[in-house]
Amino acid sequence: MEAILVSACLRGVPCRFDGQHKASAEIAEAVTGREVVSFCPEVAGGLPTPRRPAELVGGDGNDVLDGTARVVEDTGRDVTAEFVDGARRALAAARHRGCTEALLMPRSPSCGRGVVYDGSFAGELVPGDGVTAALLERNGITVRPAPGV
């Protein structure tokens, strides 16, 4: 059975920054017939649940990986190291289980694919990927945003 890495919050784990999850019938249907590897990079990187909202500042996840952008909480606290560590752990889990695809939480500074919040904490979106999504893509794992979220 083919394995797919899925954001743990999409599988019903209350690990989002607000202590909630985003499980839905659409997500369950999207992974039917696959071995699901649930993973939360932010928790794996050492951040608590709940936690302060965080956004990408100065670029997207690719820029964070290149050292030219960072991830900061709404208080200004830099959590870049935790996000990068969590992304590396997500990649290791995906490789260990043979995942070639990932279904991740849209707009997240970790898991967003194609569009993320702009770093102003005003709800504005910009093109880009989260840190984990960027690292997975760089390593040949196809990342899809979750449907209906």
TrEMBL record:
Pfam families in the record: 2-thiour_desulf
Stated name of the protein: DUF523 domain-containing protein
